[in-house]
Design a protein that fits this description.
Crypto/Photolyase_N_sf, Photolyase/cryptochrome alpha/beta domain-containing protein, 20 helices, Serine Threonine Protein Phosphatase 5, Tetratricopeptide repeat, globular, 47% helix, Rossmann-like_a/b/a_fold, alpha/beta, DNA Cyclobutane Dipyrimidine Photolyase, subunit A, domain 3
Length: 434
């Protein structure tokens, strides 16, 4: 051991890009050794992104810039690396006397494997590895059936989740900034150096608007209104605390609280059933004979189906990286039921485009739409896009914003609803052996 090297512990930022109420960071700062905060742009992930114009990479970069500015107030700095995590930790090990690596837990299959890999290396190198629960209120096996098995239906899961919730689950974690290692400022790697472009996105620190949350259940289904919290991306990258969100939801609006519980439900489903990332949760649905017409998929993805609400949603997604939740359900149902295209095609397209893409929620919601998920809409529920338009955008405010030429396209619809519905019912019944 080189006694001349500085003795530090690492805090590894991942899905928790904030100083406020950060569990793992709080624990690291209490541990004794000076804390060196780091972030790794993981090239295993970056290299799989198909477009250099990726708002998510830009969002992370801007959030890290903000984080770095906050750390400078305490004489600290954020060290940002580009590469494979193991290579970065080996380099850190050569530069410092590493005591412990602290981080907050992630539950997606690839992240679980990554962390197990780094922990194995750390154990071999005599370095501690400690992870903490931060991005959820209840994780892994915190909410189980009486027989110890995970819930696969939302309603009983949510009932137990709410029964377990106590004030202590929502206490914020304090940050003792005196524990950071003092470091001079160093510029973050430029987006361009990583092969990415600056986008039209401007990072704004998330704000919890109590008025929006109080009215959430009344207006959330109307895409023309700015009546959702728009916190999906902040929750995805941890620029807002889940404890802060749940505290406000618990006090103000049960509908929004249920949405936050759905988020955790899908996370624990993917954790306990990692194969569901690519396979139908209900195996019988692997028997569905998807049509998978590539020209129709292209028309759907570009917003050229002839259905006003479907096309508006896809155009909003392509233009902004966002789509209203009600419209997400409509476009997903349309792809899987009207066009009989495999839910995995839609899931992959959303994974490429959504700013707030979260693997567990994306997989869970696509399987919900296709009827093949753990707690899915029944296969015979087939949204009528015209009826959805009448109910949720009757004045066409949303459609006119994102799909202004909708009237000219209606005459060339890709498929008629009644025909598509009958075809879907027949195909599903046949595939399920009903």
């Amino acid at each position: 051991m080189d006694v001349n090297k500085a003795r530090v512990s690492i805090f590894w930022f991942r899905r928790d890009l904030r100083l406020e109420d950060n569990h793992g960071l709080s624990q690291a700062l209490k541990d004794g050794a000076e804390v060196l905060p780091i972030f790794i742009f993981d090239t295993d992930i970056l290299n799989k992104l198909p477009d250099s114009y990726d708002r998510r990479v830009d969002y992370i970069h801007q959030a890290l810039t903000k984080l770095q500015q906050e750390l400078q107030v305490f004489g600290a700095d954020l060290k940002v690396y580009v590469g494979e995590p193991l290579d970065i930790f080996k380099q850190l090990h050569s530069d410092y006397q590493l005591q412990t690596v602290f981080c907050n837990r992630d539950y997606e299959p690839d992240a679980v494997k990554r962390d197990e890999f780094i922990k194995t290396w750390a154990d071999g190198a005599g370095i501690g590895f400690r992870s903490f629960k931060d991005q959820v209120i209840f994780e892994k096996s915190d909410v189980l059936k009486k027989d110890g098995s995970p819930y696969t239906v939302f309603t009983p899961y949510s009932r137990v989740w709410k029964a377990k919730l106590e004030a202590k689950n929502l206490f914020p974690f304090e940050i003792d900034a005196t524990g950071f290692k003092k470091l001079p400022f160093e510029e973050l790697p430029a987006l361009e150096s990583m092969g990415f472009q600056k986008t039209d996105l401007t990072f704004v620190k998330p704000i919890l608007k109590e008025t929006s949350i109080r009215d959430y259940d009344r207006f959330r289904d109307f895409p023309a209104l700015d009546a959702t919290t728009r916190l999906g991306v902040a929750l995805r990258f941890g620029t807002v605390s889940i404890r802060k969100c749940v505290s406000l939801a618990d006090a103000c609006n049960e509908t929004w609280l249920n949405e936050l519980i759905w988020r955790e439900f899908f996370m624990q489903i993917l954790f306990h059933f990692p194969d569901s990332q690519t396979q139908c949760f209900k195996p019988a649905y692997e028997g569905i004979a998807w049509r998978n017409n590539e020209k129709e998929f292209e028309a759907w993805s570009q917003g050229n189906t002839g259905y006003a609400l479907v096309d508006a949603g896809m155009r909003e997604l392509n233009a902004t990286g966002f789509m209203h939740n009600r419209v997400r359900m409509v476009v997903a149902s349309f792809l899987t039921k009207h066009l009989l295209i495999d839910w995995r095609w839609g899931e992959a397209y959303f994974a490429e485009k959504l700013l707030d893409y979260d693997c567990s929620a994306n997989v869970g919601n696509w399987q919900w739409a296709a009827g093949c998920g753990c707690d899915a809409a029944p296969y015979f529920r087939i949204f009528n896009p015209e009826e959805q338009l009448r109910k949720f955008d009757k004045d066409l405010m949303y459609v006119k914003r994102w799909n202004p030429d909708f009237e000219s396209k209606a005459m060339t619809r890709i498929v008629e609803h009644a025909f598509a519905r009958d075809r879907a019912l027949y195909t599903y019944k046949l595939g399920l052996g009903k």
